[in-house]
Amino acid sequence: MTFGEFVKEKRQSLNITLRAFADELDIAPSYVSDIEKGKRNAPTQDILDAMVRVLKLNDDEKNKLFDLAAESKNEIAQDITEYVSDNQNVRVALRRAKELNLGEEEWLQIIEDMMKGKK
Predict the structure, then answer these.
(1) Are residues 110 and 70 in the same domain?
(2) Which of 35, 49, 88, 95 ranks highest by number of CB atoms within 10 Å?
(3) Do 58 and 108 belong together in one domain?
(4) Of 54, 63, 82, nearest to 3 (Cα)?
(5) What separation in angstroms does the CA of 81 have from each of 64, 76, 98, 99, 116?
(6) Do 105 and 73 share a domain, yes or no?
(7) Contact 86, 96 (CB under 8 A)
(8) Above 90 in pLDDT, residue 118?
(9) pLDDT at 13 over 80
(10) Average pLDDT score over residue span 47-72
(11) How sure is the predictor about 27, in pLDDT bands with cuts at 50, 70 and 90?
(12) pLDDT recorded at residue 119
């Protein structure tokens, strides 16, 4: 699923017209239309945050929106970039993981261990 498809699906599920959605975001309807059709990359973080609010996204949906937005720009999601930039130990851990060439299974184990530690 693309960023535009995700936005359109969520907008339509709430019965929000394209024009009303654009008004809520303070952007042109043609811009929203282009985003939904995949003719434009995802907008700025401020607009993404507004989309989260207007579309009433839960945390998983918000993360998916951010990830798809970043993917459309061939970037890493802004919330992740900020977290990594703000935390020295995260950068150290990611570099170590890169050096060790951790694979999917190792990362899944790390995530599982983190979730156990939070309980």
Answers:
(1) no
(2) 35
(3) no
(4) 63
(5) 15, 6, 17, 20, 25
(6) no
(7) no
(8) no
(9) yes
(10) 96
(11) very high
(12) 62
Distances (CA, A) of 68 to 6, 17, 97, 100: 8, 22, 24, 27
Is 91 found in the same domain as 51? no
Alpha carbon distance 83, 66 (integer Å):
14
Residues 91, 73 share a domain: no
**What's the distance, CA 4 to chain centroid?**
12
Q: Residue 63 belongs to a domain with what CATH number?
A: 1.10.260.40
Closest CA to 34 of 66, 76, 72: 72
Structural domain contains residue 82: no
Q: CA-to-CA distance for 44 and 41, rounded, in angstroms?
A: 10
Distances (CA, A) of 15 to 12, 36, 55: 5, 15, 10
pTM of the full predicted structure? 0.81
CA distance 38 to 40: 5
Looking at residue 47, what DSSP letter applies? H
Structural domain containing residue 112: 87-118
